[in-house]
Amino acid sequence: MNSRLDVHVAAYEGKSIYDFDNEISLTWYPKRIARVVKDPRAVLDLGLGHGFATELFSDGCKRHVVLEGSPAVIQNFKLRFPESRSEIIETYFEEFETDETFDLIVMGFILEHVDDPLLILNRFRNFLAPAGKLFVAVPNAEVMNRRLGHLAGMLPDMEALSDNDLVLGHQRYFTVGSLTKLATDAGYKIEKIEGIYLKPFATSQLLSLHLDTKIIRALCEIGVDYPELSCGLLAQLAPDDSARS
Fold first, then answer.
1. Are 205 and 102 in contact, with CB atoms under 8 Å apart?
2. From CA 74, how far away is CA 69, in angstroms rounded?
3. Per the count of CB atoms within 10 A, which of 46, 160, 167, 240 is most buried?
4. Which PANTHER family match (predicted)?
5. 149 SS3 class
6. How large is the angle between the packed helices 176-185 and 117-124, nearest 10 degrees?
């Protein structure tokens, strides 16, 4: 199908300065999830994006299903990761149907793209197996580098979308508070929220420092305990049966 999402494929071809940040975040959070959900029978993953997380999940579970609404993004992924074992289904999240349930559902940096995040969270609760876990990763408006820019008078509105956000198809940022409210409104209990990659400076500034990989890993480790300052937020959710009674 021809998809309105195809216009964003250029952002996922590995040619942007922000791929530095993307690779850090997208290879970090799947490892954090794997610490909680070990050897899942079946994983449902929303969105291909850059493909880093898809490859990690594919290697860590028996069955890995990925939903993606853009044929161009799917083609780009297959060119970059031709050996991937993941089953890719071309569909919009709002239209996906299945009788299958999954031990783990991952929404890795997709809720900032969709028209109605609450609808998506509500809908995919139906596909969770009993005792299944749902993880949500989203960009944080209050990350340290944006806070610095705001305090320095360079960023009047920390939730304002940049040109790069628009290229990626982002519609919003989140904060710890807004993500908590969204998950609660969708009928989930929040078991944990942690940070993904404490980013102290703008991407161009970080690249100019030529930081050792040990420092990059340390920034990820520190970020776990400081979600309010980190580049992304990772929320571990489970259905809250009391909210539906």
1. no
2. 8
3. 46
4. TRANS-ACONITATE 2-METHYLTRANSFERASE-RELATED
5. helix
6. 50
Q: Two tokens at 51?
A: 């493909």
Q: What is the pLDDT of residues 112-158, one digit of tens each?
A: 999 999 999 999 999 999 999 999 999 999 999 999 999 999 999 99
Residue of 187, 170, 182 whose CA lies nearest to 244: 187
Structure tokens at 125: 């609760």
Instruction: Please say whether the beta carbons of 44 and 65 come within 8 A.
Output: yes
Listing from the earlier edge strand, what are the strands of the sheet with 63-68? 87-90, 63-68, 42-46, 102-108, 128-139, 230-239, 188-198
Tokens linked to 151: 């305090």
Nearest to 141 by CA among 127, 160, 165, 125: 160
> Alpha-carbon distance 167 to 153, whole Å?
24
Beta strands 230-239 and 128-139 are: antiparallel
**pLDDT band, residue 245 (cuts 50/70/90):** very low
pTM over 0.85: yes
Per-residue pLDDT at 43: 95
Q: Which of 55, 29, 14 is nearest to 197 (CA)?
A: 29
CA pair distance 24, 2, nearest whole angstrom: 31
